[in-house]
Design brief:
GMP Synthetase, Chain A, domain 3; alpha+beta; 3-stranded antiparallel β-sheet; 4 helices; single chain; 7 strands
């Protein structure tokens, strides 16, 4: 298992109603809820952040392709929105992405760029099988140590240092093969 980001996106909230500070590798920004939802609308709401990921990924993916092909397409825009639809007691989220060519573009290029847009990494994530796992990050003030020894070596495991051991154990069976290492 290898995470996409070297450092995770980090978010905090205090008592300012619904205003979150989101930190990423190069800085931070505010996310907030709109006034109608009880926030102060001082930053994008979670839906806007999700949709902006798709919009920016789509634009970047198409720009990379355009540049690689040497096409002259100076500007493209994308509108993204979403709604929910319920049929037979099953709710589905529908995301609509409109690609807008702001300059004349040949029909063949438009058709190809629509296909390229569908291949952007965020599109693939949103259309794929997603699992959101939630872990309780433990307080590191408790310094618990467990020693694993044999005749040659002692391994000291600090559970508070290795906060996500279950992730490694589950996703790296070739390293943590408990069946091979027991009995």
């Amino acid at each position: 298992m290898q995470y996409k980001l070297e450092n995770p996106v980090h978010g905090t909230i205090s008592t300012e109603k619904y205003q979150c500070t989101i930190e990423w590798r190069n800085g931070k920004f505010i996310a907030d809820e709109p006034v109608i939802s009880g926030g102060n609308d001082t930053g994008p709401d979670p839906y806007t952040l999700l949709l902006s990921s798709l919009a920016s990924c789509t634009l970047v993916t198409m720009r990379m392709y355009i540049d690689r092909k040497g096409w002259t397409i100076p500007e493209i825009a994308v509108n993204v929105n979403m709604y929910k639809e319920t049929k037979d007691e099953k709710t589905t989220t529908i995301v609509d992405r409109d690609i807008i060519f702001l300059n004349p573009v040949e029909e063949e290029q438009k058709t190809r760029l629509i296909e390229i847009a569908k291949q952007c990494p965020i599109s693939k994530i949103l259309e794929g099988d997603i699992k959101v796992r939630t872990f309780l990050f433990k307080d590191s003030e408790t310094e618990k140590k467990i020693n694993y020894s044999n005749d040659e070596i002692t391994v000291v495991w600090k559970p508070t240092f290795c906060q996500h051991a279950a992730r490694c154990w589950q996703q790296l069976p070739e390293v943590f093969d408990y069946k091979k290492n027991t009995g």
